[in-house]
Write a structure and sequence with these properties.
Elements (H helix, E strand, L loop, with lengths): L1 E10 L3 E22 L4 E5 L11 H12 L4 E8 L10 H17 L5 H16 L5 H8 L2 E7 L2 E6 L6 E7 L6 H7 L7 H20 L2 H7 L5 H5 L6 H10 L4 E4 L6 E5 L5 H14 L4 E6 L6 E3 L3
Parallel strand pairs: 3-4
Antiparallel strand pairs: 1-2, 1-11, 2-4, 2-5, 5-6, 7-9, 7-10, 8-9
Helix pairs in contact: 1-2, 1-3, 2-3, 2-4, 3-4, 6-7, 9-10
Length: 306
């Protein structure tokens, strides 16, 4: 069985560990097969990924799922990476989701989408040390999602009534343990004023999507806490955002923990100039960037294989 899941961008301004969206920029696939066995055995392989079960997000998620269900089987997994790792586009999360949906189908576990998120987020422990739910929620459900609870896991899709696309400015860099380091940069305390402002941004973004109000979305794609703390990781971001907004982008934000930047555009935006100027800014900071154009994507699915 082959599980498939799209890339994602999390946080979306002030929605740290709450908001995320799935986009069709990249795709991960995981082949899973099972044989009868007297014990649970998992083998994982794939180009450019850890082949130790507890260090791979896909195999670790499956290990936690099957252990909880007390399933004994010999599991073979092959992770086919389409999402570049370490760039803030939910690479490890998509692998975990793809593995869980395939395993769910093989063993007919009838997991709900929230249960798929629950086990997939455990896979994130293998890659970043923490079970954050936002990316896996987006890859599981598709569209734009809000994680409303983690215990128990509850996810809601946000109705989107605004027609937009996403330009991803992707620096060609590799940061070791990037997500872990990015989380370590977060402040332990924040002022009440910043917390209130971020609540306003979060509310504006969600309302903007539901109402189809681009101005509310633009206001909502801001963050005074997490993005500010992590700015040393992506010094080019403020300038890309400033220029994109001047060229009538809907808004811009850091994709997850970065370093990828997501610029939201519509038919009112000067797409060509946003791309040209954005690439110049990346270059001026010493980064070679590529552009990936994307749209909202659907949720994870499975396909059979011989």
């Amino acid at each position: 069985m082959i599980g498939k899941a799209y890339s994602s961008s999390a946080n979306l301004g002030a929605g740290f560990d709450i908001l995320a969206l799935a986009h069709n920029a990249f795709l991960d696939s995981v082949k899973v097969s099972a044989e009868n066995s007297s014990s649970l055995q998992i083998m994982v392989k794939g180009e450019g990924i850890p082949n130790e079960v507890e260090k791979n997000s896909a195999s670790y998620a499956v290990l936690k799922l099957l252990s909880e269900y007390n399933i004994k089987a010999k599991i073979k997994m092959e992770v086919i990476k389409g999402i570049p790792p370490g760039l803030g586009m939910g690479s490890s999360g998509a692998s975990a989701v793809a593995a869980i949906v395939a395993t769910n189908e093989i063993f007919k576990l009838n997991l709900s989408k929230d249960e798929i998120v629950k086990y997939s987020m455990l896979g994130e422990i293998a890659s970043s040390g923490s079970a954050h739910p936002d990316n896996v929620a987006a890859s599981t459900y598709g569209g734009v999602v809000a994680v409303t609870s983690t215990n128990p896991v509850r996810v809601s899709q946000i109705p989107v009534n605004l027609d937009f696309e996403i330009l991803l400015f992707i620096p060609l860099v590799k940061l070791q343990d990037k997500t872990k380091k990015a989380r370590e940069m977060l402040p332990k305390e924040v002022t009440l004023g910043k917390s209130v402002n971020n609540s306003r941004y979060l509310t504006s973004f969600i309302l903007g999507l539901i109402k189809g109000d681009r101005e509310l979305v633009r206001i909502g794609l801001n963050d005074e806490i997490v993005e500010k703390a992590r700015e040393p990781l992506f010094p080019y971001y403020p300038k890309i955002k400033e220029v994109s907004l001047s060229l009538n982008a809907v808004g811009a934000c850091v994709s997850g923990a970065g370093p990828t930047i997501a610029v939201f555009i519509d038919d009112k935006s000067n797409k060509k100039e946003i791309i040209n100027e954005g690439l110049k800014i990346c270059s001026s900071y010493g980064y070679e960037c590529i552009i990936k154009e994307a749209k909202l994507a659907g949720g994870a699915w499975v396909e059979g294989w011989d």
